[in-house]
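input
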Amino acid sequence: MGRGLYTLLLRLALPFVVLRWWWRGAREPLYREGIAERFGRYALQARPKLLWIHAVSVGEARAAAPLVDALAREFPGHALLVTCITAAGRATLKRLYGESALVAYLPYDLPEAVRRFLEHFRPRLGVLMETEVWPNLLAACRENGVPVALVNARLSEKSARGYARFARLSRPAFASLACACAQSDADAARLRALGAPRVEVSGNLKFDVAPEPAQLATGHAWREHLGRPVLLLASTREGEEQMLLDALPPWDGKLLVLVVPRHPPRFDEVARLAQSRRSSGADPASLDRVHLGDTMGEMAFYYAACDVAVIGGSFAPLGGQNLIEALAAGAPVVLGPSMYNFAEATQLALEAGAAIQASEASTAMSEALNLIGDAPRRARMSEAGTKLCATHRGAAARHLEVLKNLLNS
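output
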């Protein structure tokens, strides 16, 4: 499939995409804000000497923060534009940057929409996080002389095979990149095979994201006040909450299961499984077995508040969620079998003794409960996790050097 056919299919699908965003806007109002931005029409006043960073959603927005901060320090005379696709991503970016950066939606990957985007903002440099390779956007950047770097780039074997099946579309897109900063040697090899030029291994920016000390302190105090063991089900995806809860033995009257779904629109759905929720402002009662973590921007609190964290997105074939956040906060980690989105970090955590990987939900719950009853082992895993994160920091500085060279050239 070439770019012409891709664009035609995108145009045919667009009415359904717009309806879906509008429908989601009933639960997440930010989806109904900035509709014109998705077509490349912006009320935001463009600024001169602008650097543009694209972070599709919440995870990428958080991961980009060390690099965005480094760019702001290195280029104080430049303005920053950070784009996203999801409403949760937009809310996260506004919370992270306030008025220090422009925040907008990236337009749909239509030739006229991306052209209007580039003509309005006229960025000196584009930075795409992780796997955001859009054929029409990259073609327009190349035609307009905007160098684009793919940073914190990761590419699983499954994703690489998918791109390879549509080489007529994907290869020109990857070739349009000015450079790529890969998380690992394996990611770099796959990127090169797909046609990306100037690929360097720069590490994982997520290791540079330090948990907020105030949230850690509040989480530790919350757990101490509670006086009960806390098992965290972190960033769970659809169906995982019930699966994991069903895998637990009969309640002992003490264990509190703290459930934090990955996506805010599911908070009310998951609330049916809980006896209390954090947004109510009250601590869980002594007879509450399940407490819902339904607040945004508090993952450091939740990880500090638990004895053991079970990472969601890993018990269905979804590739897992960010275990590095948990390790940085000192939480012992239990993983499910599907962690391909964090393959290198998972391997490092397992080798360091900071994480345990289970083949299914019942085994994971058994491992988690064993850890809750073994304080010395939890302490060793916590220390191993924080040491691992400290060892692998520095990716932001390595990324910055690549981007500085790109701008200077």
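quick obs: The chain has a mean pLDDT of 94.
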